[in-house]
Design goal:
This protein has no helices and eleven strands. It has 117 residues and is mainly beta. 32% of the residues are buried.
Amino acid sequence: QVQLRESGGGVVQPGESLNLSCTASGYTASTDGFSWYRQAPGKEREFVATISYNGRRTFYADFAEGRFTISRDDAKNAAYLQMNSLKSEDTAVYYCGRGWKTTIDYWGQGTQVTVSS
């Protein structure tokens, strides 16, 4: 069955970086896009970034543009989210999804990112 597993979350200070990973299993990752979403306490889940099935197209939320980079490694059935210059408002649970933009059919369990001084 399709499974997505996120890792790499943690507690960092403002201005620091984190690199999240999403490892896929149960299907061939090169046939689908990957997307990252996040959900902060008391807020709805929101889109962060997406990458196409072949890695040629990426798209970011305004708050992520210039600070976050999404990438993929199909040899590892994995996608990544490099997050730089983190802010306190980036604190959330980050979820990996299979699909492009809002067309997501499977989700991982999420990884907590906390940005605090």
